[in-house]
Fold:
Amino acid sequence: MEITSILAIYILFWVMAAFIVLPIGIRSHHETGIKMVEGQSDGAPVNFRPLRILLLTTLLATAAFGLFYLNYANGWITLDTIDFFNSRENMR
Structure:
């Protein structure tokens, strides 16, 4: 696998991990009982910590990409493994 492919796939894993990590631990003003500032959105978080989100996203993406690359290198799960309906044979 070329380095550009590795980088592109890792970025995809990172973005997917960001959407998984973003809602973890976020609390709204209604949940914490803190008074809202005038003009503030109802869903605005009280305790948004971007560095924590970046760290957790990077850790999750690195672990997921590591598993993906190990599977790519060792061939643990292939198309034949997950072809439950023999669709590859039916296409011939």
User: Anything to note?
Assistant: The mean pLDDT is 92. Residues 3-90 form one domain. The CA atoms of residues 25 and 31 lie 12 Å apart.
